[in-house]
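yo

u said u wanted the structure for the complex thing, so here. seqs first:
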Amino acid sequence: MNFYNEMYDAKGGVRAHYKGYEDWLKATPPERIERKRAEADLAFHRVGITFAVYGEEAGKERLIPFDIIPRVIPSAEWKALQSGLRQRVKALNMFLWDVYHDQEILKAGVIPAEQVLNNAQYRPVMQGVDVPGQIYAHITGVDIVRAGEGEFYVLEDNLRVPSGVSYMLEDRKMMMRLFPELFAKHKVAPVQHYPDMLLEKLRAVAPKGVTDPTVVVLTPGAYNSAYFEHTFLAQQMGVELVEGRDLFVKDEVVYMRTTQGPQRVDVIYRRLDDDFMDPTVFREDSSLGIPGIIRAYQAGNVTLANAVGTGVADDKSIYPYVPDMIRFYLGEEPKLNNVPTYMCRKKDDLAYVLDHLPELVVKEVHGAGGYGMLVGPASTKEQIEHFRQLLIAKPDGYIAQPTLALSNCPTFVEEGIAPRHLDLRPFVLSSGECVNMVPGGLTRVALTKGSLVVNSSQGGGTKDTWVLED
Amino acid sequence: MLSRTADHLFWMSRYIERAENLARLLDVTWQMSLVPQSEEAANQSWNAIIALNSLDEAFAKKHATVNGENVLKFMVSDPDNLSSIHSCLRLARENAHAVRGTLTTEMWETLNATWLEAKEKSFEQLLGAGIGDYFEWVKMRSSLSRGTTLGTLLQDEAYHFIRLGTLLERADNTARILDVKYHVLRPHDDEGATDFYEWGALLRSVSAFEVYRKVYRDVITPDRVAELLILNKDMPRSLHFCLNSVIKNLELVANRQSGETARQAGLLHAQLHYGRIEDILAHGLHEWLTDFMDRIYLLGDGISKDFLVPMAEAA
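structre next:
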């Protein structure tokens, strides 16, 4: 397979938007680079920018590898991406409002009703609930990959609790600290105002009549893999970081326990999955949630961001319909591509997938984080056979997609600088009519040679993402 | 401020203060063990440290005999002993980790780096490099943590709860050190030279040797040592100083239900403010200190119930 290289064209020439960086890299002595890389490692450790890996010893923290070669996006390319992202996220929010109200899109037969209503992520408790601004996904992390010149695909829309934005911000801070001279030479669009933008969005969706809302960040706790990010965002926004046990509900109003007695809470940026939010409604065994909070939410006394029930729109079985949603709600043609997807619940699709497993990527419909997926070309015969059995046993649990020729970018690895595959996760913020984002997003890079899985839990690293201004 | 946040801050500061005081106590005991003395007398001082922390049983499970090396190993780097310096530094860091968003970057990095460095040091390495250096290091890290708090943290509720934790812990620790040492030392007060070193070491363990000279300009006597550590209002590790600060910080965080705790703190403070060393000694120093430590414990409990882990949801 031929892969698109972000820095060099097919003939080995440097792409125009990488010219400045490449010149600098050539002119900088390797010892200096080596020293700076060690400095970055040390700084990340000391600051404690770590994440926990599920399945490893409890409480163990690892560092996400940071690569000093940035991913550079020229201005025109970003503008196109941005407009596509706005369109897509707008349609997704309209879809969510619709399925929890009149369900026009189901009545019109654009999406089979049972696909939505029988989906485990569809939350009947949300039926008829009027969320402020008709926004469900306040924060969306859209995973985008490039296959060729101007050829971008959306891999998935993360509408539940997308994470990674703190790495985007810390990576930028680190690059500016290590190589200030690069920023003097390049016009890199700033991203550091993300927390401000987020706070503004959260305040904008406060319950009706609340003029000076109390916003909090809800975390599952210090052992969650993204705990660093939760504390980081709360601190940057200057709001309280709370756990479920810090909150309680009385007369359908949410309060937090403070040293000065109970204080009312209006907007909760929750980093806790639906299932754990309220043991009286969802999982009874959840000790992380707040009993009664869903009643308070239905009564309109508190706003949850993201809303409960957004999972029905980013489920992999719904993903193939997003282009149709855009056409249905906005009357526009989608600006961003979807990856062609085989839905294994369909007989024909399943047959095709079973015949072509070695060349496809198979994903669990409800999976996330790179767990439970098969990358055909990179898998052993045993792994493929294992998935074949899984597919036959539970076809509606899986989708399959052609293996995309993900673009790559030069990256520091053990043997020196070598191309590694990457993706991009912009963070899209919505409130009412406005859909905003900071330029770029989080670039994740698969550090293992040939690997197409960029998730940090699978050994992925990150790069600073530069959107160059004109 | 969230009650849980205040709780973590309170314990974070207690644990780092406890680590420091433990380092001080072990340091002074170790130094005293270098002064020529009978083996029995030496082991008695080591045993006192175990007894002081009510750890006799836990210690006996790990070590057959009480001697310097065993006690040091148990109190410095035993991860199973929750009262060891190792555990205190870990718990300080864990509490900080839970509320790192409330701390300034410098505070968090200090506590995190302290723990990262501490956990890499094996007991054998510490002994090899000189255990005294390690105690100095612990004291410096605690000072650094206190310094970053003072120099970078907004003086709001977070700061007040941190101070409450530090001062309550210190009051308790100073009382303990005095209690145990006073009784080990007291019966020998006719022996002259050893005494001077031992009382000197006790004063050094609370950084009060020079202070004593400055305040009394006279030879060291046990009663004055007690007076300095209990009643002197300007000595940062004395009980009176600690209670002054406890009262002030309690006042600053007062809420609707904290009246009784404030009254108890005020009562205790009055004893120190208006008390005389002659009366305390006549009453019996050990009894007096035991009562003091009980009341410090109750104060901690009151603060906990009023602010940190409120039981009732009085909405």
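Residues 154-315 of chain B form one domain. The interface with chain A takes residues 1-6, 94, 97-102, 105, 108-109, 112-113, 116, 157, 161, 253, 255-256, 307-308, 310, 313-315 of chain B (CB under 8 Å).
cya
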